[in-house]
Each structure stands twice: as structure tokens, then as C-alpha cells.
TrEMBL record:
Keywords: Cell membrane, Membrane, Transmembrane, Transmembrane helix, Transport. This is Drug resistance transporter, EmrB/QacA subfamily. InterPro entries: MFS, MFS_dom, MFS_trans_sf, Sugar_transporter_CS. CDD domains: MFS_MMR_MDR_like. It is a multi-pass membrane protein. One of its GO terms (molecular function) is transmembrane transporter activity. GO terms for cellular component: plasma membrane. It comes from Gracilibacillus orientalis. Residues 25-482 form the Major facilitator superfamily (MFS) profile domain. The chain crosses the membrane at residues 61-79, 91-110, 116-139, 151-172, 178-200, 212-232, 238-262, 282-302, 314-335, 347-367, 373-398, 419-438, 458-478. It is found in: Cell membrane.
Length: 493
């Protein structure tokens, strides 16, 4: 029998304590992520109550959602780089504090304009929190199996938060009032803020010793992303080929080209262009965009389809979506395990195939017929594919990134999601609505419902097409797992 020396015991105890500490850090970061994701979806079920309570003008209530989406989406890249330069814990805690304050203002909003401004501030705070949190996760867990498991938990809680927010929002609004969907963030946020002092240590990009900031690049890319997200969000109203949409996209594209020029000349660029030498990072972000287009586009379409065509109540819909959430957690768990065994490419490709099959299954739901089993089968395949695709795309986009650029890489992948989500929602919404344009206003209700049914099913087919794009991106860009050059190369060059 071999007895451990005193030195061995101390080393073992330290390893246990470190592992326990990392687990606490992961729980803290995922709680903050869950709070932000849940907040973004609870609002959907509360919109009718908010509209009547604050007296929104016709069509203006959408800004309760758009105000958040715009500020969150256009500042993620800036937030990620700021975390590298200014300090990850500092930016995370500042974001949490600002999120708590803005949630209070949302709940106490006395006019529609106050609520919209408060939602914009919520978006700003979320853009600080999420990239900083993901960056802290990256430097806390070693690349490989350990980090893959952590990202699996992160992704699973994101999926749970997105769907459970619909159920939570409906129940809170019905029992306590819409104000409490915002007030509930306050105790959670304060707990996260307090525990951050105890669990997190400060870190920043080790090579950003001068902490310089690329002001010109920051302004250019922020405006470019703002115009891009706004143009996409307004597509259902302005039209895909409308002058507003085309004009905003052209201006956004021109600003992106200007941004690339600025970064190539800057001594301390906001986004060192060398980071895009990583084929895996580029591929992971392409897969992420396609996955969000398919997932969020399908979920938005299915929300309308379930309530308008199938006649589901808000609670029935939320319970149905919880089934998909559970299977998506299984998809995340299986996906992160198999990434280490068969490679990120195969897992991402499999996830995209399952997404596509799930969407195509929903196109087979007959009109005016009991078809829950078809819907269940489609949602189960879709949910499993969603979990696998999301975890694989995140692992790919964050693999081989040097520590000093972890915040930047986190901001890039979150920005990809923020572009893919409104793009998928807007395109599928416009497609579904276009199928009713030829129906006269005085047509029989059944005729109108049939047109909507066909429009939604066509949109499900397009969502499957988005998944096909993600499959192609995974096959083209994601090869076998390997160490990328960015891990040991100064990407600022």
C-alpha cells in the first residue's frame, strides 16, 4: 500500500478546491447569462399588457423589443474588446449593475418613452455582461474537454432561458403584472454582483499593457452594426427589396469596408484582423449565424402558427416548447461529448441536418387535423439539432484563440448570433405574410387561415434552407480539431 505524503495531500486538496471554485464561477456566469436571455423572451408574452398599460400608439410597441435588440446587437463586439482592455471582471460587474438599474427603470416606467429608453440601457448592459462573462469562462477552463463541458452548460442554460422565459413571462404577467418581469431581475442581479467580488479575479489581455482604445474603429463598426440590425429588424415593414432596406444595407456595408481599412492601419486596432486567419473561428461564426437564422426564425414562426392556426393558449405553447427545451439540453450534452471524439465538424453538420429535418417535418402538418405527434416529432428533432449545432459552433468559434483576445472572440460569436437571429425572424415573417397578400380582406375566415397555414409552412421550409447553409459552412470551414495559429501568434500584427 502506498501512503500519500503531506505534499501530495496538499496538492490533491488544492486541485479539489480549484475545481470547486471553477464550478462556482461557472454557476455565477451562467446565472447572469440565464437572467439576460430570460429577460429577452419574457417581454414577448407581456407585450399586450404593456401596450394597453402605457398607451402605446399603433405599431410603436415593437420598439420595446427593437430598442433592446439594436443596442445589444451593435455593441457586443465593442463590449468584448473592452473586456480585454479594461478588465473582464470590471466590465462584467459594471454591466450587471447597469442591468439591475435599467430593470428597475423598466418596471417603474411611467410612459412609453421611458420604457423604450430603459430597454435601450438594458441592451447596453447586456452587451457588456455577456462577452465579458464568456471571456471569463474561456480563461477559467482549459481548452479541450473541460472547456467544452463548460460551454455545454452555458449553451444549455441559454436554451432553457429562451423558452422558459415565455412560460415565466406569461405567468408573472397574469399573476403580478408586467412590471414584475423586470423587477425579478433585481434580486438575481444583486446576488450576482455581490458574489462576483468573492469568486472572480480581475484579468485583461496580457499584451494590452497600454490599454489604448481604437475610437475611430469603435464608432465605425458600432454604427455599421446598428444600421445592419435595424435594417434587418424593419424588413417585415419596409420590405426586403424596399429602398429603406437596400439603402441601410449599402451604408452598413460601406462602413464595414471603412472599418477594415481603419483596422489595417491602426497601431492598436479594436479588432486585429489577424484573428480571422483562424479558419475554425470563421467557420464557427458562419455556422452560428446560420443556426440562429434557422432556430430563431423557426421559433418565431412556430409561435405565430401555434396560436393563430393551432389555437394554442400562451401556456399550452410554452409547455410544448419546454419539451423541445429538454431535448435541446440532451443535444448540448451529447454534442459537447462527441466534439472531443469525432471532431467539431461532424457534430455541427449533424446538428444542422437535424435542424433541417425538424423544420421539414413541420411542413407536413395538415390543415384542420389533429397532428400533435407530427409536431412533437418535428420539435424533438429540431431541439436535439439546436443543442448540438449551438455547442459545436461556439466551441469552433472559440478554439485556438489567444487569452488576450478571448473577449474579442466572445464578442464576435455573440454578434454573429445577434445578426442571425433578427435576419431569420425578419425573412420568415416577411415570407409568411406574403402568402396572405392576395387574399381579399372580406374573404371567408377559413380561406384566410388556410393562406396563413400555407405561408407558415413555406417559412418552415425556408428555415430548413438556412440549416442547409449551416451544413455547407461546417463542411467547408470546419476540419478536424487542431491548434490554430492564433493561439501562439500575435493577431494584432
Amino acid at each position: 500500500m502506498r501512503f500519500r505524503s503531506k505534499k501530495d495531500v496538499k496538492k490533491t486538496d488544492k486541485d479539489v478546491i480549484d475545481k470547486r471554485h471553477r464550478t462556482y464561477i461557472l454557476a455565477l456566469l451562467c446565472t447572469a447569462f440565464f437572467m439576460v436571455v430570460t429577460d429577452s423572451t419574457t417581454v414577448f408574452t407581456a407585450i399586450p399588457s404593456i401596450e394597453s398599460s402605457l398607451g402605446f400608439a399603433a405599431g410603436d410597441v415593437q420598439w420595446v423589443i427593437t430598442a433592446y435588440t439594436l443596442t445589444f446587437g451593435c455593441l457586443l463586439l465593442l463590449g468584448g474588446r473592452a473586456a480585454d482592455i479594461l478588465g473582464r471582471r470590471r466590465l462584467f460587474m459594471f454591466g450587471v449593475g447597469l442591468f439591475v438599474l435599467s430593470s428597475l427603470f423598466c418596471g417603474f416606467a411611467w410612459t412609453d418613452k421611458v420604457l423604450i429608453v430603459a430597454r435601450m440601457i438594458q441592451g447596453i448592459s447586456g452587451a457588456m455582461m455577456i462577452p465579458a462573462a464568456l471571456s471569463i469562462l474561456m480563461i477559467t477552463f482549459k481548452e479541450g474537454t473541460e472547456r467544452n463541458k463548460a460551454l455545454g452548460v452555458w449553451g444549455a442554460l441559454g436554451g432553457i432561458g429562451a423558452t422558459s422565459g415565455l412560460l415565466i413571462g406569461g405567468l408573472i404577467t397574469e399573476w403580478f403584472g408586467w412590471e414584475w418581469i423586470f423587477f425579478i431581475n433585481v434580486p438575481v442581479g444583486l446576488a450576482v454582483f455581490a458574489l462576483s467580488f468573492l469568486l472572480l479575479h480581475e484579468s485583461r489581455g496580457v499584451r494590452e499593457t497600454r490599454r489604448t482604445f481604437d475610437v475611430a474603429g469603435a464608432i465605425t463598426i458600432t454604427i455599421a452594426l446598428f444600421l445592419l440590425v435595424y435594417a434587418i429588424s424593419e424588413t417585415p415593414m419596409a420590405g426586403l427589396l424596399g429602398m429603406q432596406t437596400i439603402g441601410l444595407l449599402l451604408i452598413s456595408g460601406a462602413l464595414v469596408l471603412l472599418f477594415i481599412y481603419i483596422e489595417s492601419r491602426s497601431q492598436a486596432p479594436l479588432v486585429p484582423l489577424g484573428i480571422f486567419r483562424s479558419k475554425t473561428l470563421v467557420g464557427g461564426n458562419f455556422v452560428c449565424i446560420a443556426a440562429f437564422m434557422s432556430v430563431d426564425g423557426m421559433l418565431f414562426t412556430f409561435t405565430m402558427y401555434a396560436q393563430r392556426i393551432l389555437g394554442y393558449s400562451a401556456v399550452q405553447f410554452a409547455l410544448t416548447m419546454m419539451i423541445m427545451t429538454v431535448i435541446s439540453i440532451v443535444g448540448v450534452s451529447v454534442g459537447q461529448r462527441f466534439v472531443s471524439r469525432i471532431g467539431v465538424q461532424k457534430v455541427a453538420a449533424f446538428g444542422m441536418v437535424m435542424l433541417g429535418i425538424g423544420c421539414m417535418t413541420l411542413t407536413m402538418v395538415p390543415f384542420e387535423s389533429s397532428s400533435f405527434m407530427i409536431i412533437l416529432l418535428g420539435l424533438l428533432m429540431f431541439g436535439f439539432g439546436m443543442g448540438a449545432a449551438f455547442v459545436a459552433s461556439q466551441i469552433a468559434a472559440l478554439t485556438g484563440v489567444a487569452e488576450q483576445d478571448s473577449g474579442l472572440a466572445s464578442g464576435i460569436v455573440e454578434t454573429s448570433g445577434s445578426i442571425g437571429s433578427p435576419l431569420g425572424v425578419s425573412l420568415l415573417a416577411a415570407i409568411a405574410i406574403s402568402h396572405t397578400g392576395y387574399i381579399p380582406d372580406d374573404a371567408d375566415q377559413q380561406v384566410q387561415l388556410l393562406a396563413l397555414h400555407e405561408g407558415y409552412q413555406f417559412a418552415f421550409g425556408v428555415a430548413a434552407g438556412f440549416a442547409l447553409l449551416g451544413l455547407l459552412a461546417s463542411l467547408i470551414f470546419l476540419g478536424q480539431p487542431r491548434k490554430e495559429k492564433t493561439e501562439n501568434t500575435d493577431v494584432s500584427s
